[in-house]
C-alpha cells in the first residue's frame, strides 16, 4: 500500500518511502527472527523431551515397585484351609523350606461392657469422677454439667485415648453405653467411682466386687493356637512372631482341625517378571537414544550432549552388574541370572541361565526382588525399614533400653534417634529416615543392613536423577533460563528493529525533502532557460 503523498502527486523522489522503509527494516530483522524462532523451537523440544524421559523413568520405577510389592515375585506361604487362617510373607522373608502344622483353639477377643438402658441418650447420667483403669494405668473421666449425658460420657472416654472405645446403642429398650477394649487378656479394663457415690455414675462402674454396675457382654481373651503341637497364646488374631517371616491372621477357631502351612515358589512369575523388566528397560533406552542421538543442522536428538541424559545412561547401563544383595550364596546381580547387556545398550534375557539359577539358588534369585534386612545383634530388632528407608548399612551406637519411664535412646550414624517407649525412630533429615528399631538390650554398637534389591536400585537411580539438586533439575533450570533469555532477546530485537525503522524513515524523509527542493530548483531553472531561449528567438 502506498502512503507517500509525494508519490501520489508525482512530486519529490517518486519513491514509496513508507513501503521502502518497511521492506528494508523487515529484511534487516528477518534473519534475527528466524534464529530466535529456531532457538525457541529447539528449547521447547528439549523441555518437552526432558519431561518425557523424566516421566518415563519414574513410571518404570513405580511399575516395578508395584510389581514387587504385589508379592508375586517371591515365595508366599500356603494354608490348607483359608477359611480358618490366612498367611502372607513379610518383606525379605525366605520361606522356601516352610512346612508346619497349625491348630486354632480359640480366637482373641476384646472385653465388651454394656450399661443398663436410659430412656434417651441425652438424659443425665450423674456428675462426678469415673476412673478408667487399663494396662496403661488409671485415668479420671470427669462428668460435669457440660457432658452430663450418655453422649457426653462417651466423648469423654474416647478423648482419654486409652484403647477403650465408647459408643451408644439405641433400640426399643432405650439407649445404652457400650465400651469395647482391645483384644487380649492384657487389655482388660475396669471402671470405678469413689466409695459412697450416689449421683448415678455408680451405674457405670465395673470390676471385682462391683454390683449394680455395667454388665460384661464379652470377656477379654487371648488367642490360643498349637504350632506343631506346641501351645502358644497371643493377644490378638494377627501376629508375625510365631512363624519366622510369616504374618498369621486367624479367622475362625476350630479345635482339632489341623492346618498345613507350606510355601509356593513363583518360578514362572519370576521369569515373566524379568522378561517384562527387560522389555520395559529397552523401551526406556530407546526413548533416551532417540532424545540424545548425534546429528547436525537440527537432525540430532533434542537432548544430545545433555549432562543429565549421560548420567542416566551411565546409571542404567550399570544396573545389570550392580550388586543388589550381599547376603548368602548364589547370584547377587541381574547379570548372574542371565540378564545381558547388548552392544547397543539394550538388555536381553538368557532364560536357560535363569532357569539354572532358579534350580540351584532359588532363594538368592528371589532376593533380587525381595531383599533382606537384618541386625547384627539380638539386642536390636528392625520394626520397619524395607521400602521406607534408603538401602545401605547403618551403625547404631550408644544404645540404652527403656527403663524407669524413660524411653530407649541411641544414635544412628552419629545422629540422635527419637526414643518412643522401647523403640528408636530415625530423625527427619537422617539418611536412615523411615528406620524404626526395637531395643531389647544394651549394646555399644549394632550394624543394621538394608539390601537394595532391583526395586531399590532402580528407585535410587530415579531419585538421583530427579532430585532437586540432581542432573534433571539442573537441566530443567538451564532450559528455563534459556527460554527467558529468548524472550529477552526477542524484546531486544523488537527494540532495535523499531529504532532502525525510525532511523530509516527519518533518513528517507529528509532525502525526500531534499529531492523535492532539488526538483523545485530544476523546475525554476527549466522555466528560466525556456524564457532565455524564447527571448533570443
Quaternary organization = single chain
The rounded distance between the terminal residues' Cα atoms is 48 Å
Q: What's the shape?
A: elongated
Class by SSE composition: alpha+beta
Using the coordinates shown, work out and report the CATH topology of the domain at 110-218.
Answer: Alpha-Beta Plaits
Q: Which stretches are poorly predicted, pLDDT < 50 over at least 5 residues?
A: 5-11
Describe this structure in words.
The chain is α+β, with helices and mostly antiparallel strands and 537 residues long. Among the domains are: 5-56 and 475-527, no CATH class; 75-107 and 223-264, no CATH class; 110-218, Alpha-Beta Plaits (2-Layer Sandwich), CATH 3.30.70; 392-448, no CATH class. It is built from 9 helices and 26 strands. The protein has helices spanning 5-9, 17-69, 150-160, 267-292, 307-317, 351-360, 362-367, 453-466, 471-536; strands at 76-79, 85-89, 100-106, 110-114, 128-134, 137-143, 165-171, 174-183, 190-192, 215-218, 223-227, 230-234, 238-239, 246-250, 259-264, 339-341, 347-349, 373-375, 380-384, 392-400, 409-412, 415-416, 418-420, 423-425, 436-439, 443-450. Strands 1-15-3-11-12 form a 5-stranded antiparallel sheet, with no helix packed on it. Strand 13 and strand 14 form a beta hairpin. The longest helix has 66 residues, at 471-536. The protein is elongated and about 155 Å long. Mean pLDDT is 88; it is low at 5-11.
Amino acid at each position: 500500500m502506498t502512503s507517500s503523498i509525494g508519490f501520489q502527486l508525482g512530486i519529490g523522489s517518486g519513491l514509496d518511502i513508507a513501503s521502502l522503509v518497511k521492506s528494508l527494516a523487515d529484511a534487516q530483522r528477518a534473519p534475527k527472527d528466524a534464529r530466535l524462532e529456531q532457538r525457541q523451537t529447539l528449547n521447547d523440544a528439549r523441555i518437552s523431551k526432558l519431561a518425557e524421559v523424566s516421566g518415563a523413568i519414574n513410571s518404570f520405577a513405580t511399575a516395578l515397585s508395584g510389581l514387587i510389592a504385589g508379592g508375586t515375585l517371591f515365595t508366599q506361604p500356603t494354608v490348607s484351609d483359608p477359611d480358618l487362617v490366612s498367611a502372607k510373607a513379610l518383606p525379605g522373608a525366605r520361606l522356601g523350606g516352610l512346612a508346619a502344622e497349625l491348630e486354632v483353639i480359640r480366637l482373641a477377643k476384646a472385653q465388651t461392657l454394656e450399661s443398663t438402658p436410659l430412656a434417651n441418650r441425652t438424659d443425665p447420667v450423674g456428675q462426678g469422677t469415673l476412673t478408667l483403669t487399663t494396662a496403661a494405668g488409671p485415668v479420671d473421666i470427669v462428668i460435669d454439667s457440660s457432658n452430663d449425658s450418655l453422649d457426653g460420657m462417651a466423648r469423654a472416654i474416647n478423648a482419654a485415648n486409652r484403647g477403650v472405645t465408647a459408643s451408644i446403642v439405641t433400640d426399643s429398650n432405650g439407649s445404652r453405653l457400650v465400651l469395647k477394649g482391645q483384644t487380649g487378656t492384657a487389655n482388660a479394663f475396669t471402671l470405678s467411682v469413689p466409695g459412697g457415690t450416689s449421683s448415678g455414675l455408680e451405674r457405670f462402674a465395673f470390676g471385682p466386687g462391683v454390683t449394680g454396675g455395667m454388665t460384661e457382654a464379652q470377656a477379654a481373651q487371648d488367642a490360643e493356637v498349637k504350632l506343631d503341637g506346641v501351645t502358644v497364646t497371643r493377644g490378638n488374631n494377627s501376629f508375625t512372631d510365631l512363624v519366622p517371616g510369616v504374618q498369621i491372621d486367624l479367622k475362625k477357631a476350630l479345635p482339632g482341625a489341623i492346618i498345613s502351612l507350606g510355601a509356593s515358589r513363583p518360578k514362572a512369575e519370576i521369569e515373566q517378571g524379568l522378561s517384562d523388566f527387560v522389555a520395559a528397560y529397552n523401551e526406556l533406552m530407546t526413548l533416551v537414544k532417540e532424545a540424545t542421538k548425534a546429528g547436525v543442522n537440527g537432525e540430532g536428538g533434542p537432548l544430545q550432549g545433555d549432562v543429565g541424559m549421560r548420567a542416566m545412561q551411565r546409571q542404567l547401563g550399570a544396573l545389570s552388574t550392580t550388586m543388589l544383595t550381599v547376603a548368602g550364596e548364589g547370584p547377587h546381580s541381574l547379570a548372574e541370572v542371565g540378564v545381558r547387556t547388548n552392544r547397543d545398550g539394550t538388555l536381553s534375557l538368557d532364560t536357560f541361565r535363569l532357569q539354572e539359577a532358579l534350580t540351584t539358588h532359588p532363594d538368592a534369585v528371589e532376593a533380587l526382588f525381595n531383599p533382606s534386612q537384618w541386625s547384627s545383634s539380638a539386642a536390636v530388632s528392625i520394626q520397619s525399614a524395607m521400602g521406607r528407608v534408603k538401602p545401605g548399612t547403618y551403625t547404631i551406637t550408644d544404645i540404652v533400653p527403656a527403663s524407669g519411664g524413660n524411653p530407649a535412646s541411641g544414635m544412628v550414624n552419629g545422629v540422635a534417634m527419637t526414643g518412643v517407649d522401647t523403640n528408636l525412630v530415625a530423625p527427619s533429615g537422617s539418611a536412615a529416615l523411615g528406620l524404626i528399631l526395637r531395643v531389647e538390650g544394651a549394646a555399644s554398637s549394632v550394624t543394621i543392613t538394608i539390601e537394595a534389591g532391583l526395586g531399590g536400585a532402580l528407585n535410587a537411580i530415579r531419585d538421583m536423577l530427579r532430585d532437586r539438586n540432581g542432573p534433571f533439575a539442573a537441566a530443567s533450570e538451564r532450559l528455563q533460563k534459556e527460554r527467558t533469555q529468548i524472550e529477552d532477546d526477542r524484546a531486544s530485537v523488537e527494540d532495535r528493529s523499531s529504532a532502525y525503522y525510525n532511523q530509516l524513515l527519518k533518513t528517507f524523509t529528509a532525502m525526500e525533502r531534499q529531492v523535492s527542493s532539488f526538483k523545485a530548483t530544476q523546475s525554476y531553472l527549466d522555466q528560466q532557460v525556456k524564457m532565455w531561449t524564447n527571448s533570443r528567438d
